[in-house]
Amino acid sequence: MGRTCRNICLRYQADPVPNKIRYEIGQKRCTFCGIFMKDCDTRCICCKAVLRTKPRSKKKE
Ligand SMILES: [Zn+2]
Ligand SMILES: [Zn+2]
What we know:
Elements: E1 28-30, E2 35-37
Antiparallel strand pairs: 1-2
């Protein structure tokens, strides 16, 4: 509710790299906006959704 992609995230979009090293180099994924971001806090600056910091194939911590 209230989550909207305003395309602000595009300014923070991470550089294109192989997916398997995305998380290793600190990129975070916003599942709502559907992009990887860099230089971001724990929440997406665009839609405020919590960013994913680890591959979902692995369990938390
Ligand atoms: Zn967005
Ligand atoms: Zn977002």
